[in-house]
């Protein structure tokens, strides 16, 4: 690609990661190189088949702060801050050393929302994005500055959800 854009999937509704993984699948289908860096996911516990399937298709995947944000809140935010900063360092290294057509930063917006990454740190990272790389960011609570900076913003809102009727997460649908 000559120019890669910045996409943001945010809002309180379900489907932000799903949308980003759909972007990854589409890109891989067009022989593009894709990398996913995720925060606050526990793939070994929640069995994220989407990640392992994409990895089998050649997508490079890295995870940081691999527990739910509530866990870090309960033990104090220092460890989450260190982990998310390690993630930012990894992303900068990827920008410098590897050539990806698309990089997905899954739940990075939550790290900003919860104060583990400062907004200016994330915006500074966006300044370092290679021109030709498509960058996709997900997570609830995107700041106005981030929304202004992005080229595409999808604010995903829940109108109706079966969780509100007591339905638990379903294998193959929510994870």
UniProtKB/TrEMBL annotation:
<dbReference type="GO" id="GO:0008817">
    <property type="term" value="F:corrinoid adenosyltransferase activity"/>
</dbReference>
<protein>
    <recommendedName>
        <fullName>Cobinamide adenolsyltransferase</fullName>
    </recommendedName>
</protein>
<dbReference type="GO" id="GO:0005524">
    <property type="term" value="F:ATP binding"/>
</dbReference>
<dbReference type="InterPro" id="IPR027417">
    <property type="entry name" value="P-loop_NTPase"/>
</dbReference>
<dbReference type="Pfam" id="PF02572">
    <property type="entry name" value="CobA_CobO_BtuR"/>
</dbReference>
<dbReference type="InterPro" id="IPR003724">
    <property type="entry name" value="CblAdoTrfase_CobA"/>
</dbReference>
<dbReference type="GO" id="GO:0009236">
    <property type="term" value="P:cobalamin biosynthetic process"/>
</dbReference>
